[in-house]
């Protein structure tokens, strides 16, 4: 007769443990006994958790080498940029350069502008005739990405940003994203050539995107900066418009 939970069939134990949070599984359950530790390390348990939490899709089986890491990355995945669409004024942003008539926030579509083709984005940041740049520094450990995960798995880091010009004025857009070490040394950088938009453009919103892959170990921070200015030195807010910035960390299959 069955006397303890340890006598349960392995598939039943997998089903029961898959109901628990990942932190409890890793920090507590695996310490109970050798049997539980072995079950917690089973790919089938983490695959079951992916199914329960909606992270699993047909066709993933061959592309996933570590279901535990896949589950953890899925559960952590979010936009690491805070206040990306100006809904909280300039909260969370550091205004590195704020010249001309300075940064301003406007509602879509703005004067001589267009609506962005992204749901629930209603506001944007706009630059002036002097250089306007703002930034955020993301501490990865604060977001749940521990050092060993970043060093050994090096999940993809995806950067996206949306920018647009006014129809009636030319402007310049720039973006720089750096992966930094614990000592703030630059391990890898994305810094494309500035985008110069001529006067009488279509004023459409466009997406800038970059994926960091196979970067060096030791990444502890991500520094994101964007901005620009108008190219005709008009008083007011005729420079580049930016919104809906994002940084997300793997997995690429989602």
TrEMBL record:
The lineage of its organism: Eukaryota, Metazoa, Chordata, Craniata, Vertebrata. This is FBX6 protein. It holds the Pfam family F-box-like. SUPFAM superfamilies: F-box domain, Galactose-binding domain-like. Residues 70-251 form the FBA domain. Keywords: Ubl conjugation pathway. It comes from the Eukaryota. Residues 2-49 form the F-box domain. Coiled coil: none annotated. InterPro entries: F-box-assoc_dom, F-box-like_dom_sf, F-box_dom, F-box_only, Galactose-bd-like_sf. The keyword Aminoacyl-tRNA synthetase does not apply. One of its GO terms (molecular function) is ubiquitin protein ligase activity. The keyword Manganese does not apply. CDD domains: F-box_FBXO6-like. One of its GO terms (cellular component) is cytoplasm. GO terms for biological process: ERAD pathway; glycoprotein catabolic process; SCF-dependent proteasomal ubiquitin-dependent protein catabolic process. It comes from Piaya cayana.
